[in-house]
């Protein structure tokens, strides 16, 4: 039974506590001068990878936890955060702020890294809170031909098999698969740790390998074009009715029944 080589993709996004604003050109959300942090779902992924090692959940042990990010130079900050949480090293594919890579492009980059690093488990957030695409994990599984378990709320091991529990309407669903595989994380999986000051200092000495899209031989040409970005219209206030008959009359007027 070979040890786990875990790849954990992380993304730099606008901090979840910041209210997004559309830029003046209405082409995208304003990012200049806005606080950024690690995508919350990716924090769960890093935490889960580190817990698998600490709890010795997998009989073969964990050989390596590799954090990966594709983004502008400042994406190195979240790679340092991931390493302060327990990742061993990082890979940064640097692209400019304006050239954000679509999920298909990210999945292609991850496939190249998986093959280069001989990873056998990829743990990533189910979605990023900026574009909410929720596609990268599934596309990566398709490109690699691996099994996948999405929206994990619990991960356990039975020998060389992985059991992933996730919440569904009316209960839970358990997926069993063999390695290598893809797992995407959901909010109830764990509670990410805060990086301690000693670990933050240690993370500064850990290696971040900088590679380019060309180094990995991947085509990340955009296939989608954003025509316009606008704020959602203000929500209209509701109306009051006196009784059930009044409610039915109002619903009929609105064409709801």
From TrEMBL:
Pfam family example for this protein?
A: ETF
Which residue range or ranges hold the Electron transfer flavoprotein alpha/beta-subunit N-terminal domain? 26-220
What would be one Gene Ontology cellular-component term for the protein?
mitochondrial matrix
Subcellular location per UniProt equals:
Mitochondrion matrix
Q: Which domain of life is it from?
A: Eukaryota
The record's keywords, sorted A to Z, are: Electron transport, Mitochondrion, Transport
Against SMART domains, the record matches this protein to:
ETF
Note accompanying the cofactor annotation: Binds 1 FAD per dimer. Binds 1 AMP per subunit.
UniProt function note: The electron transfer flavoprotein serves as a specific electron acceptor for several dehydrogenases, including five acyl-CoA dehydrogenases, glutaryl-CoA and sarcosine dehydrogenase. It transfers the electrons to the main mitochondrial respiratory chain via ETF-ubiquinone oxidoreductase (ETF dehydrogenase).
UniProt-recorded name of the protein: Probable electron transfer flavoprotein subunit beta
């Amino acid at each position: 039974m070979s040890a786990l080589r875990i790849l954990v993709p992380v993304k730099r996004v606008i901090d979840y506590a910041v209210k997004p604003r559309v830029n003046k050109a209405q082409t995208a959300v304003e990012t200049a001068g806005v606080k950024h942090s690690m995508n919350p779902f990716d924090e769960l992924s890093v935490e889960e990878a580190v817990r698998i090692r600490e709890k010795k959940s997998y009989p073969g042990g964990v050989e390596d936890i590799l954090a990966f990010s594709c983004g502008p130079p400042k994406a190195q900050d979240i790679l340092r955060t991931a390493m302060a949480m327990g990742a061993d090293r990082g890979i940064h594919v640097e692209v400019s702020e304006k050239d954000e890579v679509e999920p298909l492009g990210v999945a292609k980059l991850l496939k190249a890294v998986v093959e280069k690093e001989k990873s056998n488990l990829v743990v990533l957030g189910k979605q990023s809170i900026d574009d909410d695409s929720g596609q990268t994990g599934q596309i990566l599984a398709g490109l690699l031909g691996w099994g996948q378990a999405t929206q994990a709320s619990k991960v356990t091991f039975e020998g060389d098999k992985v059991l992933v529990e996730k919440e569904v309407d009316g209960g839970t669903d358990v997926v069993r698969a063999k390695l290598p595989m893809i797992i995407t994380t959901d909010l109830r999986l764990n509670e990410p740790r805060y990086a301690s000051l000693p670990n933050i200092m240690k993370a500064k000495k850990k290696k971040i390998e900088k590679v380019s899209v060309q180094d990995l031989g991947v085509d990340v040409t955009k296939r989608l074009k954003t025509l316009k970005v606008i704020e959602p219209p203000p929500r209209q206030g509701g109306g009051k009715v006196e009784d059930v008959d009044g409610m039915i009359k109002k619903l009929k007027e609105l064409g709801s029944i």
